[in-house]
Design goal:
Helix content: 25-40%
Shape: globular
Distance between the termini: 18 Å
Radius of gyration: 19 Å
Mean pLDDT: 91
Strand content: 5-15%
Number of strands: 6
C-alpha cells in the first residue's frame, strides 16, 4: 500500500526498529510486563492473572497498541494506570494514582511523590528487563527480516542501522542468538543513548542514527511496526515504511507512512532505486 505521491528521494541508508520489526519480541515482552507486577511485589489479582494466562500471556490489545514503540519511562505509567482502571489493581504500598490524567492531579510541589513515582517506574522497568532477558533465548526473527537485512547488505552501498526504544542492556540480551543479523548493522542506537533526549514519537532517535550514518534523514528509509515509531520516522524526515502488527488497523498509518507492507517479504526496492526485490526470494510466511 503506497501512501505518498511525493518525488522519490535517493536512498543512501536504511534504519530498522528492533522490537516487532526485526525480532518478534512482542509476545515475550507482554509476558514480561505481566510478570513484572509480581516481581515488584504488587501482583495482579488471581482472577486477572488467570485470565491473562488463558489469553496466552498477552496484554489486551487496547493497552498494547498504546505502548508500542514507547520507552519504559513512558509505557510503565500507562500500564500501571490501565491496571488500576481495568483490573482493579491495588498498586504499590503508597497507593499512588496512575490512571489517565494523573499528571494534572498530582501535587507538583511534592518532591517526595515525584521521587516515589520515579523509583516505582525504574523498579518496574528493571523487573521487566530481567524477566524479558530470561526469555530472550526464545526470541525469533520476524518473517523475512534476516533475509531482507542480508539482501540490503549485499547491495553494497547502503549502510544499515538499528534505532530502538529498548535500553542497551535489553538489546544486548535480545541479539545474543541473532548475530547473523546484527553483523550487518553499522550502528545500534538505543533508547537510553545519551544523545537521544526524547523517545518516539519524537524524531530524536532517527535524527541521531542518520547523523551517525553520515546521511541526511531524507535519504534514509525507516522500517517501523508501531504507530509511534512511524510518526517519529516521518517527523525526522525519513521515508517511512510501516510493517504493522496484524491486529493494527492499516488505516492508522495513512498519514504517518510512505508505504505499508504486511511483512518484510513484501518489500520491493525498485521505487527507491534499490535493487532488492523480496519477491525473488523464497517466501514461507
Amino acid at each position: 500500500m503506497s501512501l505518498s505521491n511525493k518525488a522519490t528521494p535517493k536512498i543512501k541508508a536504511v534504519i530498522f526498529d528492533l522490537d516487532g520489526t526485526l525480532l518478534d519480541t512482542e509476545s515475550l515482552s507482554c509476558r514480561a510486563v505481566i510478570d513484572a507486577f509480581e516481581l515488584t511485589n504488587a501482583p495482579l489479582k488471581p482472577a486477572i492473572r488467570s485470565q491473562l494466562k488463558q489469553d496466552g500471556d498477552l496484554l489486551p490489545w487496547e493497552l498494547k497498541q498504546r505502548i508500542l514503540g514507547l520507552r519504559g519511562s513512558e509505557w510503565v505509567p500507562i500500564t500501571l494506570g490501565y491496571a488500576q482502571e481495568k483490573w482493579d489493581w491495588v498498586g504499590h504500598e503508597n497507593g499512588l494514582d496512575w490512571r489517565d490524567g494523573w499528571q494534572s492531579r498530582r501535587n507538583n510541589k511534592d518532591t517526595q511523590e515525584s521521587e516515589t513515582r520515579e523509583r516505582i517506574i525504574n523498579t518496574f522497568i528493571e523487573a521487566w528487563e530481567r524477566r524479558l532477558g530470561s526469555l530472550c533465548e526464545q526470541v525469533v526473527a520476524c518473517p523475512g527480516a534476516l533475509e531482507l537485512v542480508r539482501a540490503l547488505s549485499e547491495h553494497g552501498d547502503l549502510p544499515l542501522a538499528v534505532a530502538t526504544s529498548s535500553r542497551s542492556e535489553g538489546v544486548r540480551k535480545k541479539r545474543i542468538k541473532h548475530e547473523e543479523m546484527f553483523q550487518f548493522f553499522e550502528h545500534v542506537v538505543t533508547g537510553d543513548d545519551k544523545n537521544v533526549r526524547n523517545g518516539k514519537p519524537a524524531p530524536d532517535i532517527f535524527l541521531e542514527t542518520a547523523r551517525r550514518l553520515n546521511v541526511h534523514p531524507s535519504e534514509c528509509i525507516v522500517f517501523e511496526d508501531s504507530l509511534q515509531g512511524a510518526i517519529a520516522g516521518k517527523a525526522a524526515g525519513c521515508v517511512t515504511i510501516a510493517v504493522p502488527d496484524k491486529r493494527m488497523e492499516k488505516e492508522a498509518f495513512i498519514d504517518h507512512s510512505d508505504h505499508v507492507i504486511p511483512s518484510m517479504w513484501h518489500f520491493e526496492g525498485k521505487k527507491w532505486g534499490i535493487d532488492v526485490h523480496m519477491s525473488n526470494h523464497s517466501i514461507d510466511n
